[in-house]
Amino acid sequence: MQKILIIGATSAIAEAAARLWAPRGAAFYLVGRNAERLVSIADDLKVRGAARVETQVMDACERSQHEAMLTAADNFLCGIDVALIAHGSLPDQRACELSVDLTLAEIETNALSVIALSTLIANRLAWQEKGTLAVISSVAGDRGRQSNYIYGAAKGMVSLFLQGLRNRLAKQGVQVLTIKPGFVDTPMTAAFPKGALWAKPESIARGIVRAVERGADEVYLPGFWRLIMLIIRHIPERIFKKLSL
Predict the structure, then answer these.
(1) What is the pLDDT of residues 8-26, one digit of tens each?
(2) What's the order of all strands across the beta sheet hosting 82-85?
(3) Cα 244 to Cα 225: distance, rounded to the nearest angstrom
């Protein structure tokens, strides 16, 4: 029985991943801000075959609550096999450009809270000498672009942090998985026009579950984003700064 902690469990991608794990008889500890949605998701997972499900309401930015939450999850699950960090927000880039406070708040949500949680979870998995820490970052973190550099900077910070964490924990049998989705059709992106590059949460979730199973270090989802970002990263700066990306 897999014992799975999901932080940001009410996000579309996290819920879709949980629905894939549930029929395998996994046990879940679900953390999020919306109590009603957490209960609804928990009930659904039980119907789908989950062995046990517990929920906790927590704002991931409240760092003072992290340690107690992890202790409660560890006690309920009797150890953690997989921890998926899936919370985040999509900033209003223009509003952030005009407000230092808003910029720093978005960095807190999308980077600092994730790093804080990853540090605490990593230490627990290192003590176990097993387990997986899987964190949803983004292709946006691969290169700063004028259209979303606040979000990209936060995700880039997370991706670089996870690289170092992976290097640190490799010898202790702990998998650190960096998940880099491209455009995903979720409630968070409802206002955006959709095109051929957009994926559904269920597709991303399948990629996450596969990546956890095969012990991957980093995964672009869908996979074609690896090539797209390879090209974008290698555009010379003198040319890149003239583009409207």
Answers:
(1) 999 999 999 999 999 999 9
(2) 52-57, 27-32, 3-7, 82-85, 132-136, 175-181, 218-221
(3) 19
Per-position DSSP letters for 125-156, written without gaps between them:
HHHHT--EEEEE--GGGGS--TTTHHHHHHHH
Name the phi and psi angles at 5, rounded to 5.
-100, 130
Summarize pLDDT for 228-241 with one digit per residue, the tens: 999 999 999 999 99
Is residue 191 scored above 80 in pLDDT?
no
0.85 surpassed by pTM: yes
CA separation for the pair 218, 134 (Å, rounded): 9
Taking the C-alpha atoms of residue 171 and residue 157, their distance in angstroms, rounded to an integer, is 23
| Rounded alpha-carbon distances, angstroms, from residue 12 to 17, 46, 122, 130, 187 | 9, 18, 24, 27, 8
The token pair that represents 119 in the structure block: 């540090």
CB 85 within 8 A of CB 29: no
Say which DSSP state 50 is in: -
Pair of tokens at residue 22: 């549930």
Report CA-CA distances (Å) from 143 to 62, 186, 232: 29, 23, 8
Note whether 73 and 58 are within 8 A (CB).
Answer: no
